[in-house]
Known about the structure:
mainly alpha
Amino acid sequence: xxxxKPQNYSNHVRFDPVSHFxxxxxxxxxxxxxIVHLVMVPFFxxxxxxxxxxxxxxxxxxxxxxxxxxxxxxxxxxxxxxxSALVPEPLRPRIWExxxxxxxxxxxxxxxxxxxxxxxxxxxxxAPKQIKQAIQNWRADHFRV
Length: 145
């Protein structure tokens, strides 16, 4: 299998093709068709089709966001463990002050850059975007969905 394309700030966002390019568009088109049908044929089952279409869209979005939340929790744990081994002793207790978003952004920092970025993040309260942009040698995360 070929190596994946090198990851960096400009290309690290990932799409789930089944969710983003199949399920959601199909359910959105179905919702539009159901609304049109309800307007043309105002009947209980037409209204129910609209409700069902909204429920399917909500289900798809909820399933995606729940999976992302679990991944965020795992990333948070992994990064706290990794950073506790990388940062100098005086900084270790402060790892818990990093926000979830900062920890998730720091996963892209290689071991050599992580301690400095942790210190800067704590001192300057860097936003995730600023952390990612400050990384010189991107550490790819190809497992995030």
